[in-house]
């Protein structure tokens, strides 16, 4: 279940699936990335709150995973793997943020429709299993705020490509010969079919309802601001 908390004096969203893990999704109160304005003070505030520097990435809607070492920026990367002592943030404007965690190892994943078609969530899961020997059933996944199916219409080719990634058709909707998808639900379906037992899916849409006032939606407003997923592993 998701709930609101504070990071410093800024409102953030957390999941009770990870009660002992420093993680949150920023709201409009604390933008960490913008193409339109300077948000350096916000970054400094979150860095001070965490007590450490944060790595980040340059997403390309692919499925490349990088392990965070001594660098703080990872180009052409849509997933950051964090071991003990590392922290990172990743920025979103409608795409799906996923946080993976097991036994002092975590990962932040950026899953737009292209990444979801390439099954980036399953690739992230496989890396944690293969590199660290974790059992799939011990890995917890938090799926953060993203656009809902009522707000996300796609073409038939995208719809058909996403449909091939899951056995059940949850997250895929056809209305009056128009095609709509829920990427949160599709990523959750991919993970469940891979054996993941612990998944918390955020109820907020970035483009409608209460969520549109809490988070940013590029599709709805074409804003240059982004909300972020933050994860620090201790």
What is this structure's SSE topology?
Blueprint: E1 2-7, E2 10-15, E3 22-26, E4 33-34, H1 40-50, E5 56-57, E6 65-67, E7 73-74, E8 79-82, E9 87-92, E10 96-102, E11 105-111, H2 113-117, H3 120-132, E12 140-143, E13 153-154, H4 156-163, E14 172-175, E15 178-181, H5 183-193, E16 198-201, H6 218-221, E17 225-232
Parallel strand pairs: 5-7, 6-8, 12-16
Antiparallel strand pairs: 1-2, 2-3, 3-17, 4-17, 8-11, 9-17, 10-11, 10-12, 13-15, 14-15
Offer a concise description of the structure.
With 234 residues, this protein is α+β, with helices and mostly antiparallel strands. It has helices at 40-50, 113-117, 120-132, 156-163, 183-193, 218-221, and strands at 2-7, 10-15, 22-26, 33-34, 56-57, 65-67, 73-74, 79-82, 87-92, 96-102, 105-111, 140-143, 153-154, 172-175, 178-181, 198-201, 225-232.
Gap from first CA to last CA: 22 Å
Structural class: alpha+beta
At the third CATH level, what is the topology name?
A: CNF1/YfiH-like putative cysteine hydrolases
Give the ordered list of helices and strands.
EEEEHEEEEEEEHHEEHEEHEHE
The CATH level-2 architecture is identified as 4-Layer Sandwich
Estimate percent helicity. 10-25%
> With helices defined by DSSP (H or I, 4 residues minimum), what is the helix count?
6
Shape: globular
CATH class: Alpha Beta
**Average pLDDT rating:** 98
Radius of gyration, CA atoms, in whole angstroms: 17 Å
Counted beta strands: 17
SS strand fraction: 25-35%
Determine the CATH superfamily: CNF1/YfiH-like putative cysteine hydrolases
Count of discrete structural domains: 1
